[in-house]
Amino acid sequence: MKAKMKVERLLSTVDKGMVALLTVVDDDSSLSDFGRFAVIKNKIGVKTVTGKASSYCLLSLQAGEEIVSEGCYAISMPKLRSMLASLPKEDMVEFEFQEKKTDTSIGNLAFSSGNTNWKMPCSYPNVIADVNIDEGDFCLSIEKDIILDAVSSISFAGNIFDASFTTSNICISLIDKNVLFGATDDIRCAAVKSPSTNIVNAQRFLIPIIFLSKILKTFDKNEIKVFSGKGFVRFSQEEHSVKISLPDGADINRFPNFEAIVLKDHPFKLKVMTSKFKSIVSACHDMNPEEFLMKIDDNAVHFYAYCNKDGMSYHSSLPYTGDKVNVSVGVCSLFLLEYLKKVKEEVIQLEFPQKDGKPKYIEIQDNVGGFYLLKSLIDMVHTPPESIQVNG
Hints:
The chain is built from 8 helices and 28 strands. It has helices spanning 7-17, 77-85, 144-154, 209-216, 249-253, 258-262, 274-286, 333-340; strands spanning 2-6, 34-40, 43-49, 53-60, 66-69, 71-76, 92-99, 107-113, 116-122, 137-143, 169-175, 178-184, 188-195, 203-208, 223-229, 232-237, 240-245, 270-273, 291-296, 300-307, 312-319, 321-322, 327-330, 347-351, 354-355, 358-359, 362-365, 370-374. The strands form 5 sheets. A 9-stranded antiparallel beta sheet has the order 14-11-12-13-28-27-24-18-22. Strands 6-2-3-4-17-16-15-10 form an 8-stranded antiparallel beta sheet. A hairpin with a 3-residue loop joins strand 12 and strand 13 (188-195). Helix 1 (7-17) packs antiparallel against helix 2 (77-85). The two termini are 39 Å apart.
C-alpha cells in the first residue's frame, strides 16, 4: 500500500468509517478498536465492525491525490484519527506499508505530512471485499432531519439502560405511505408519523436509541437511502454507509402494535390548550405528589394532586372543547410532563379508550402526527400489522 490524500478528506473518511465504534458499550469491552484501512482501485476507505453494527466510507480520489499501490490493513482507528486531527486540514498526508513482522504485527503503516511523521503497527484483516455498497433491498429515501427530529421527540419514552430490545430501541415502521417512529418503556409509548410517498417495501425495524442519532449525524447531506436485508438495516449516502444489526423477528413482534393506534381514523373526545395543560401538570409535579388524578366531567378537566407527607393538596381545572366526557384516571405527572415538553402545537387532543367501563390508557395527539399513550399497554395488540414484513 502506498498513497496520499488531503488531510481533511482522510480525516472525514476515518470519522465516517469508524462510526460503528459508537455502538460499543460496556458489555462490548472485549471488542478491538481496530478497523480496516484500505486502498482499493481508485478509492481510499475505512471500515469498522462491532457486534451491533458495521460502517464504512470509501472516497474516490480528487485532484492532487494519488494511489501508487493497493492494500488493506487493520490499525487502531481512534489513534489514527487523533494523529490526523492534529494536522493542518489543507495539507496532504502520505502513507505506505512497511513490512516488519513481530509477535503482534506484520509491519507498520508509515504516515508523513509536512514536518510530522508517525508509524502505526498493523495486521492483516479479513478481506475488505465484503464491503458491498449495494447490500440489501431498497426501502425508501428519507430526509435525515426527519429521523433526527423523530428520535428527539420520542426517545424519552424508551429506556436506553434496559437490555430489552423492546424498550431500548426505536421502532421504525414503513406502512401505508407513512413512516412511523415509536418508543416505549412498556408503561408509555410515544410516536411520530411522517407521510412519505418514497416507500418501496413495507418494513419494521428496531434500532437502538442510544446511537441512532450519533450515526445519522455523520452523514453530510440530508437525503438518506434506507436498505434492508436479513437481520440488518443499512443507511447509505453516496460513498458512506452504516449497517446496523437487528434483533430477530420474535423481538420485533414483542414491540406494541402502535401503528394501529396512530393510523386509526377517529374523532377525539376533547381538546385542550397545550400551554395551560402543561402549566398545571408542571405545578402538580413540583409537589412531588403521591397521587395525581385527572377527572373529566361535562365542564372541565380537573387536576388533583396530593402529598400526604407534607400535608399539601392541589386542585385546578381547565375548560375543554369537544364531546362531553366523564372519566377519572390516575397518572404519573413526570411521564405526562416529559411528553408535554416535546409538544409544539397549541392544542392537543385526548382520548380515553375503555374496557369493561374503565379507561385502559390515555391517548394524546397533536395536530402534526405526534401521539402518546400513557398508563398501560397491556391491552394493546403486540402483533404487528399484516402488511409489515418482519426481517429475520
